[in-house]
Amino acid sequence: MTTEPTRALETFDNPRPERDYTIRMTIPEFTCLCPKTGQPDFATFELEYVPDRLCLELKALKLYIWSFRDEGHFHEDVTNRIVDDMVAACQPRFLRLTGRFNVRGGIWTTVVVEHRETGWQAPEAVTLP
């Protein structure tokens, strides 16, 4: 497998497609460039998704995230673009990506993007005593 950045998001078959379960990942090393100044922007992404038939492969996800490092992107656009690419790759029942961008000019930016498959309902939360 390559260790070069790539936009190819690989998947594998969900081992439990009959069950709703959540996959959570923390991606702490996202970088891209500010499209106005060319300076680096840093973010931590929190990914949560309920897979359907396919799951995202981790090394391919790492190389995909790496592929943005030398490109200029607004925080709002790049977060939405990543969600669009993930949804196209694995067609999850639900996906939420939270981008927590490091401070720039005294302002912290957090962008939250969600996708929900038509007709999918989240299971009722269980509260234990």
What does this structure look like?
The chain has a domain at 23-103: GTP Cyclohydrolase I, domain 2. The longest helix is centred in the middle third of the chain and has 16 residues, at 75-90. The mean pLDDT is 96. With 129 residues, it is an alpha+beta fold. It starts with 10 loop residues before the first strand and ends in a 13-residue tail after the last strand. 19% of the residues are buried. It is 19% helix and 38% strand. The strands form two sheets. Strands 2-3-5-6 form a four-stranded antiparallel beta sheet, with helices on one face.
In CATH, the homologous superfamily of the domain at 23-103 goes by the name GTP cyclohydrolase I, C-terminal domain/NADPH-dependent 7-cyano-7-deazaguanine reductase, N-terminal domain
Mean pLDDT: 96
Q: According to CATH, what is the topology of the domain at 23-103?
A: GTP Cyclohydrolase I, domain 2
Q: What order do the helices and strands follow?
A: EEEEHHEE
| Shape, principal axes of CA atoms | globular
Which class of secondary structure composition applies to the elements? alpha+beta
Classify the beta-strand content into a percent band.
Answer: 35-45%
Radius of gyration: 16 Å
Overall number of strands? 6
Kindly state the percentage of residues in helix: 10-25%
Largest sheet: 4 strands, antiparallel
Straight-line N-to-C gap: 47 Å
Poorly predicted regions are: none
Q: CATH class of the domain at 23-103, anyone?
A: Alpha Beta
Strand order of the largest sheet: 2-3-5-6
